[in-house]
Amino acid sequence: MKSKITLLAVLLSFAINAQIKLPKLISDGMILQRDTKVNIWGWASPNENIELDFKGKKYKTITAGDGKWSIRLPSQKAGGPYEMTLKASNTIVLKNILFGDVWLCSGQSNMELSMDRLKDKYKDVIAKSANPQIRQFLVPDEYYFAKERNDFSSGSWVEANPLNVLQFTGVGYFFASEIYEKYKIPIGLINSALGGSPAESWISEESIKKFPEYYEEYLKFKDGKLEKQIEENDRKVSSNWYKKLNETDLGLKDKWRNSVEISDWNEMNIPGYWADGELGKTNGSVWFKKDFILEKVKENQAKLILGRIVDADSVFVNGHFVGTTSYQYPPRIYSFNANVLKEGKNEITVRVINNSGRGGFVTDKPYELIIGDKTIDLKGAWKYKLGSKMEPLPGQTFVRWKPVGLYNAMIAPLKNYPIKGILWYQGEANTKKPLEYGALMETLIANWRAQWKQETLPFLLVQLPNFMEPKPEPAESNWAALRQQQLNTLKVANTGLAITIDLGEWNDIHPLNKYDVGKRLSLQARKLVYGEKNLTASGPLFQSMKQNGDKLILSFSDVGTGFMIKKGNELKEFAIAGTDGKFVWAKAIIEGDKIVVWNDAVLNPLKVRYAWADNPVEANLYNKENLPASPFEAELK
Questions:
Q1: Which of 538, 565, 585 is the last residue of a domain?
Q2: Which of 534, 514, 502, 510 is nearest to 423 (CA)?
């Protein structure tokens, strides 16, 4: 009897192993790349017969000794939906398949940033987003050092609609919408991006060898032991810090979320940072309270907008919890049931946790309560009290950003899936060492093109936008230096650059205007990929210069129908340097298709810069197609 059971188990195991298994990408609702041969692949038992039935034709193969199989379909025109049937010991029917153009959206947080984060800015867009011809596959945020993975742990194709679109990459969605509107071709987005990630984490083991420092760092993590030690230690340190914070927080102990006596609390103007006041550079928890008066509340819903808060917050209205955010970057927008409000005096309480640096409320953001058509301004004096003072939380190692890890987990599994091109929005994480960025990107582009076996795979980059406080005088800037490296990447064939120097926010590394970013990427794609050769797809790009006495004569490409001064009557943000190398502001004028730059005090100008700053707010050189000129630095040869 025992032997029969054992034999049955073996046969059952064999049958299960013989069954076809597909990668997550090959699934219902997928968009396959048109006008090229397409791979359909997966796994089964060794020497298993696999049959694929598509559009009335059958395609057959036999699995290899390792159980892998692949069937190559002939090129298909854009269209669908279709069904596909796969047979072995089991049968799988894939439904709702389209052929169109597939774009990989990768990089860091500004590419990852979802439509959900943009839902207040683009409410009408989201409401009208239903379009089964635009779809996204969201790659899970994972890293792996040991080797290249052959599949994702999860993921599925979803159609754009008011619910699904909330998880779409904002930049990718606006790009797809523009391309679809122009060509009416199904557009598939593969969203494989991770916040905070540097370029080296997206490069393969073999390619990262060009950078010995990063390769040696990668080798330390390859076996997984150091990774586990660091993550365990980081978790322990963080857990202990927050445990101590919560145990010592007087606000939790005495329930400051409720209405309590606050006559002995200090006062602070919001928005602002408490480091600038009596508390100084204090880390830990600080509680804030604000009273306001209401007439009778008739509405069912209310919305509390608290700009951005560094680092984390929990918010209460009349003692009722209405929302929390665990890190500093997302906008604080808390919708809640208006029945917690009352006629007369009401109170908002905010517990702010700051684990390092300067804690407080980011300036130049909205702080208001919206009830129906009434808006209550919450800026101004708030009461505050220290809940618990802590030593700064030690910084984490962020293993997920180490070299190669994201490539292995989030890019390698895509290699069999043909794509039309790549949209890349990244660079913020490399601004500490900007001068190496060009070499990293050239390596990454070559690496990815080799993976897809497409030597001219289109690669469209987003140049970093303006960010941080403006400076009154010419100065060095790592952000400007990295933008120059991004500009230099255009020397690589079949690349494009979306210039966004006018789309940033000085106080937010995640600017909300993702529509124009997507649109400018779509212009690049229309010209570079879709063949609109006469389209002006970029703002002016510096090409060359010559000296004429004490003046520099600058030539540009992508001038379109002519230069334009966007704001004001004079060109701003030009600087020149002479033999001493010191940059000073310069006068600049448009002369036909040239820009003439000079400063009367610089008799022998040798270098020029434009918009060379973290946040060159006065940069105003555009073409008449309303596209901004790229920042640049150049020197006479």
A1: 538
A2: 514
Contact assessment for residue 291 and residue 346, using Cβ atoms and an 8 Å cutoff? yes
Q: Does 532 share its domain with 567?
A: no
3-state helix, strand, coil in the chain (%, to 5): 25, 35, 40
Closest Cα to residue 134, out of 110, 94, 105? Answer: 105
Dihedral of alpha carbons 18, 24, 30, 36, sign: negative
Tokens 């979320």 identify what position?
A: 257
Q: Model confidence over 169-181: pLDDT tens digits?
A: 999 999 999 999 9
List the domain range (segments joined by +) for residue 447.
27-38+71-211+403-538
Q: Write the pLDDT tens digit of every residue in 95-130.
A: 999 999 999 999 999 999 999 999 999 999 999 999
H or E segment to which residue 632 belongs: strand 632-635
Half-sphere exposure of 418 toward its Cβ, with a 13 Å CA cutoff? 20
Residue 1 confidence (pLDDT) above 90 = no
Residue 388, Cβ density class (10 Å: 0-12 exposed, 13-18 middle, ≥19 buried): buried
534 with 564, same domain: the answer is: no
Report the amino acid identity of residue 579: T
User: How far is CA 541 from each of CA 119, 337, 544, 560, 632, rounded to the nearest angstrom?
Assistant: 34, 52, 10, 11, 8
Q: Using alpha carbons only, what angle is made at residue 514 by residues 528 and 455, rounded to the nearest 5 degrees?
A: 30
Are 201 and 317 members of one domain?
no
Backbone angles phi, psi at 548, to 5 degrees: -130, 90
Residue 561 burial by CB count (10 A; 0-12/13-18/19+): exposed, middle or buried? Answer: exposed
Separation of alpha carbons 449 and 379, rounded Å: 51
